[in-house]
Amino acid sequence: MARMSRQKIWAGLPLAAAAAAGLLLLLQPLSASSRLLPGPLSRPEAFARAAALTELGRTMFFDPSLSASGAQSCASCHDPHHGFGPASAAPVEMGGPGLDQPGVRAVPSLRYLQAVPAFTEHYFESEDEGDESVDNGPTGGLTWDGRVDHGRDQAAIPLLSPFEMGNKDAAAVVAALRQAPYAIEIKALFGADIFDRPEDSLKAAGEAFGAFEQSPADFYPYSSRYDAYLAGKATLTAQELRGLKLFEDPDKGNCASCHRSQPANDGEPPQFTDFGMIAIAPPRNPAIPANRDATYYDLGLCGPLRTDLHDRADYCGLFRTPSLRNVALRRSFFHNGSLHSLRDVVAFYATRDTDPGRWYSHAADGTVRPYDDLPPVYQGNLNRDAPFGRKPGEAPALTDADIDDIVAFLGTLTDADQVNTAALSPAAVREPQQR
User: Fold this and answer.
1) By Cβ atoms counted within 10 A, which residue in 100, 161, 171, 189 is the most buried?
2) DSSP string, 48-115
3) pLDDT of residue 130
4) What share of the chain is helix, strand, coil (3-state, %, to 5)?
5) Dist CA 38 CA 24 (whole Å)
């Protein structure tokens, strides 16, 4: 219920007007207990501060001067016209001071992250969400491996990553912020001496980014045709309805077991994720430069980017389940961007185990190397629930026509402001087959 309440509060806030008033309200001494947060605020002052932070974060999000190259903003990889995900089909994006350093993972969407819980190894849903008695295991956190819990902390990762925005250190970020035309707003929000404290300045930038990424209209509008269908304000085609049924059928697609498709017990719209960590072993992607090293593996929860769980062999190969909202906008899929068609993604789920030769590399003698991006020692971590779990040569849980129907349903998850972009994306749905 708390998440829905926050959503309603933010949705009713006139951001631009409040932001202008907020700068006046925020010209006050900071409290002694925190050099970033102001002292006690009235409710109107708190809303005004939030609005001012949101507008500051919005401006910063589109500012390329915050990168070492001077040519890359947050929006360069998180395009607002592609659901705040990448516009390109490249498996990884290029960054660094010369824009010549490749990343190691596909860029995720920033939409619908507002409800992601903090990472925990033992997640129990609330009564509003589902069954309180079930331990869902490792769950939550942002990024593919859940290594940070808040947008304000996540923002520091690309700012300082050598293959993203490429700043050498916090001081380099501060130097850019000090010269930015919005420096006065930063001082108004965080104190006149904020730029004299590099680490606090970086945290201040994170606060602004985090506030922007909580903006409902930008990041969680719930405006898809499926949302309208749930509200009784739209209809789905016969094919889309078949796809929804297959999506939710535990013996067929079984997609909804991880990508929740129905409202929560409190009526909150479905997030199309359970926020959990899962190992599904998409095929190794030779287009990622890091994979030219045959000994390199991205093992998600147990490293190499996340380091605190490196000794947990039972976590190796697990990555966070992303929301499927706006998934039809994507042109590369999974953490390694190994597939480039939504239809192929659904087909992979259906035939990963029944036809592994379709997806995985082959040895010199022609034998298949199943699950080739996950070392054999960790393959016991693989999810085997339907539609996985069948043996090579067996009939898959989904037919070709079933796959088409599920893809058609996934197209209904595109937000209204993204529909024109979706229309320009490569076709993901084939003509329905005769039954």
Assistant:
1) 189
2) HHHHHHHHHHHHHHT-GGGSTTSS--HHHHSBGGGTTB-SS--SS-EETTTT-EE-SSPPPP-TT-TT
3) 64
4) 40, 5, 55
5) 13
Can you tell me whether residue 338 is helix, strand or coil? coil
Buried b (16+ CB within 10 A) or exposed e, 48-60: bbbbbbbbbbbeb
79 has which bridge partners? 85
pLDDT digits 0-9 by tens, 87-132:
999 999 999 999 999 999 999 999 999 999 999 999 988 776 667 7
The answer to whether domain 2-61+74-118+141-219 and domain 225-285+321-424 are alike in fold is yes
Torsion angle of C-alpha atoms 186, 188, 193, 195, degrees rounded to 10: 10
pTM for the model: 0.88
Under CATH, which number does the domain 225-285+321-424 receive?
A: 1.10.760.10
Domain 2-61+74-118+141-219 has what CATH class?
A: mainly alpha
Tell me the three state secondary structure of residue 379.
helix
Token pair in block for residue 48: 């005004």
Query: By the 8 A CB rule, do 281 and 317 touch?
Result: yes
Q: For residue 205, which of 179, 241, 173, 230 has the smallest C-alpha distance? A: 173
User: Residue 343 corresponds to which tokens in the numbers above?
Assistant: 């239809």
